[in-house]
Design brief:
Elements (H helix, E strand, L loop, with lengths): L1 H22 L8 H13 L11 H41 L10 H8 L4 H46 L2 H24 L2 E5 L8 H19 L6 E5 L6 H10 L9 E2 L4 H4 L5 E4 L15 E5 L10 H9 L2 E3 L3 H4 E3 L8 H13 L3 H4 L8 E4 L4 H37 L1
Parallel strand pairs: 1-2, 1-5, 2-3, 4-5, 4-6
Antiparallel strand pairs: 7-8
Helix pairs in contact: 7-8, 7-12
């Protein structure tokens, strides 16, 4: 028994007493029965070590102070709860009396309501909260009504689409697809080639490559629906490239069934150089007419940072002829770069191939980039201005010559 008491005393001296001296004694830290048993054990062992005694008076003071603090905290909390409950009762009475009181009010709003200095200020604050809640309800109601209307319109559209999808429409769409495919198949044998240069993957980011493939998909679709389509060639195309992965995402199983020519060879190896013309906006030479015997090359590149001269330098390295569309000749150019998207280029070339009308073809240029068509081509205006200037200069020289002859005759007569 004595050895157990000694062991218990050492544990208390090493762990419990320093903690009590540092933090004070809480009510729920040591129960009363535990403290009494500890004190009895220490009293039994007082005969051995009289110097080591537990100060029970200090312990009682600590416990009493902690009890007082807890009591004061509970009193303050109960007072606050009672005041909040009283304020809520007042608000309920005002609501029953017909005043503008919000239905839901938080504790923070209730505290600010209680802190208002006068009754009129409290009324104004409650009116503000009421109107705020009313606006929120109205907004929510409008959003719900919009959602319901949108769902109704979608359901009606789906019903009408289902009714429209008759056997005749399905037969018509399938027959048109067959006609389009037949035209493209004929263009692969007899049509004019159009080359897309797929060697610009290293000059673009992943996002730009995805945008390029999206534009190429639109170009292929517009070419397939054309009356006289091109024979599209994808040159410098590698199977493990980002272009290939993006095409697989768009076409899936239909990629292997497309009526186009895909090759890893360069276009200079497939076609003679004398027939190739590289279309680039940086070219100093302007394209005047569409030549049906030439093979036009378009760089498959979407350049967000507008790196000028990349396609022109590539064409010069290969020793190819270049050309730019005559945008300034026919359009009052407004703002922005003169680079067009690939699907816009496809629409322009198809229109030129069918009609040869530049004004009709350049209608596919976005309206934000120009402010109207030129009534006369620029070179014709320059010719007329030069003619006017020469005529004016000629008349002026004739007048000077006549004036000199008149003055000279007068001098001779005077002599």
């Amino acid at each position: 028994m004595q050895s157990a008491n000694m062991l218990l005393k050492k544990i208390i001296r090493s762990s419990v007493l320093p903690f009590v001296a540092q933090h004070g004694m809480k009510k729920d830290l040591f129960p009363l029965s535990r403290t009494l048993s500890l004190s009895l054990c220490l009293k039994q062992d007082n005969s051995r070590n009289p110097s080591e005694k537990l100060d029970l008076d200090a312990w009682k003071k600590v416990m009493k102070s902690s009890l007082r603090e807890e009591a004061s905290e509970t009193v303050s909390e109960s007072k606050e709860v009672s005041t909040l409950a009283a304020a809520r009762e007042i608000l309920e009475m005002w609501r029953l009396a017909g005043r503008l009181v919000p239905e839901n009010i938080s504790e923070e709003q209730l505290k600010t309501f209680m802190e208002c200095p006068s009754k009129s200020a409290k009324k104004k604050y409650l009116k503000f909260l009421y109107l705020k809640e009313l606006y929120k309800k109205n907004d929510k109601r409008k959003m719900d009504e919009k959602r319901e209307r949108r769902l109704e319109t979608q359901e009606q559209a789906s019903e009408t689409n289902e009714t429209k999808r008759s056997s005749f429409v399905c037969l018509w769409s399938s027959s048109m697809d067959r006609a389009y495919n037949w035209r493209v198949a004929q263009s692969m044998i007899f049509g004019q080639p159009l080359v897309f240069d797929m060697s610009y993957e290293k000059d673009m980011s992943i996002r730009e490559v995805a945008n390029t493939v999206r534009q190429l998909v639109l170009s292929e679709a517009s070419n397939r629906r054309s009356v006289d389509p091109f024979h599209i060639h994808f040159c410098n195309f590698k199977e493990d490239s980002l272009y290939h992965k993006e095409f697989i995402k768009h076409y899936r199983e239909a990629w292997s069934k497309l009526l186009i020519t895909v090759t890893e060879q360069c276009y200079t190896e497939v076609f003679p150089k004398g027939k190739l013309i590289y279309l680039t906006a940086d070219s100093p030479k302007v394209m005047k007419t569409f030549d049906h015997n030439k093979i036009y090359i378009i760089g498959s590149m979407v350049d967000k940072s507008i790196k000028t001269g990349v396609s022109l330098a590539h064409a010069k390295r290969l020793g190819l002829e270049t050309a730019a569309l005559p945008l300034e000749k026919y359009l009052h150019w407004n703002t922005g770069a003169k680079n067009l998207t690939l699907d816009q280029m496809m629409h322009i070339l198809l229109t030129l191939k069918d009609t040869g009308d530049w004004k009709k073809a350049l209608e596919f240029v976005p309206k934000r980039k120009y402010c109207g068509f030129v009534s006369k081509p620029v070179h014709e205006l320059e010719k007329t201005l030069k003619l006017i200037n020469t005529l004016k200069l000629g008349r002026r020289q004739e007048e000077l010559r006549k004036q000199f002859a008149k003055n000279y005759s007068k001098k001779l007569t005077q002599k």
